[in-house]
Amino acid sequence: MTRYVSANGLRWSAYAALFGVLTRANHAVYQGMVRLERQHSLSGRNSVENNYRVWDEWDWSRGGEEWTHSEEWKQSLIDEVMRVQLAPGTTVLEIGPGAGRWTEPLLEMAAHLVVVDLSDRCIEVCQERFADAPNIEFHVNDGRTLAALASDSIDGVWSFDVFVHIAPPDIDSYLGEIHRVMRKGGRAVIHHARDGHEHFEAEAGWRSGMTAAMFAEMLRKHGLTPCAQFDSWGPGGRFNVRRHRDVISVFTK
Ligand SMILES: C[S@@+](CC[C@H](N)C(=O)[O-])C[C@H]1O[C@@H](n2cnc3c(N)ncnc32)[C@H](O)[C@@H]1O
Predict the structure, then answer these.
(1) pLDDT tens, position by position, 95-128
(2) Which string of DSSP letters, residue by residue, matches 123-134?
(3) Which residues fall within 8 angstroms of residue 137, CB to CB, at 6 or more apart?
(4) Average pLDDT, integer, range 223-228
(5) Cα of 128 to ligand 1 centre, how many Å?
(6) Which of 104, 148, 187, 201 has the most CB atoms at less than 10 Å from its CB?
(7) Three-state secondary-structure class, residue 199
(8) Confidence of residue 179 (pLDDT cuts 50, 70, 90)
(9) Which of 45, 50, 51 best tests ligand 1's pocket when mutated (most atoms within 8 Å of CB)?
(10) What is the ipTM of this complex?
(11) How far is residue 106's CA from residue 103's CA, in Å, rounded to a whole number?
(12) What residue ranges do the domains of the chain occupy?
């Protein structure tokens, strides 16, 4: 402290000391919130209602490409994850298409594509964008279930930049629903938070409290089989989802 005072003066040093105290208090309060979320299965800030409000009012004029790290990154996710994990010429479900950033390549590979989104606005945007596609159907849902879909009707599931914002209790509900709608041997690819709220910085990307381990445990609970969890892909792991400490889970029924 005396080192700081002689170098920066008393007033600056007092502010610096106060900053340290407030930062520690901030973390302690935050950890208290996280503990309560876990103990009582709370949705916290990632509730269905908040997701609806944020995404239904979003300016979709950039098509969701504002979240594309680079063209190479996007193409590699399509070529080395989507097309490797999901079988072409089958029935695929996309949860949370937004403005259709991944819907376009999914439409090219799927025989039939079912898109489900909480936001009616997003479904309208996709209906306009893919008005000429003969092999797509659209559903607005409640943010937790897949009530419009028949059991054992889906071969593959894709969801990117969606479950990262969904609270663990709602993810739990979705995984039960995915088990119901997916045919035996079906395969799902879901991008979600890796560290939950272990790190204060997770707040920056409005990540939910999900963790990689919690997700794998939920899969087993619902009779789904985890195949892989990874946060990078491509030559030498060149591309990744580490910016907000995310991970991609691949699983089968
Ligand atoms: C960040 S945007 C991503 C859109 C698109 N997947 C992309 O990567 O460009 C999140 C999308 O997930 C949808 N969403 C958020 N929570 C949802 C939930 N609980 N159930 C279904 N869709 C949800 C939003 O309406 C929005 O379309």
Answers:
(1) 999 999 999 999 999 999 999 999 999 999 999 9
(2) HHHHHHHTTT-T
(3) 112, 113, 114, 115
(4) 98
(5) 17
(6) 187
(7) coil
(8) very high
(9) 51
(10) 0.99
(11) 5
(12) 1-40, 43-252
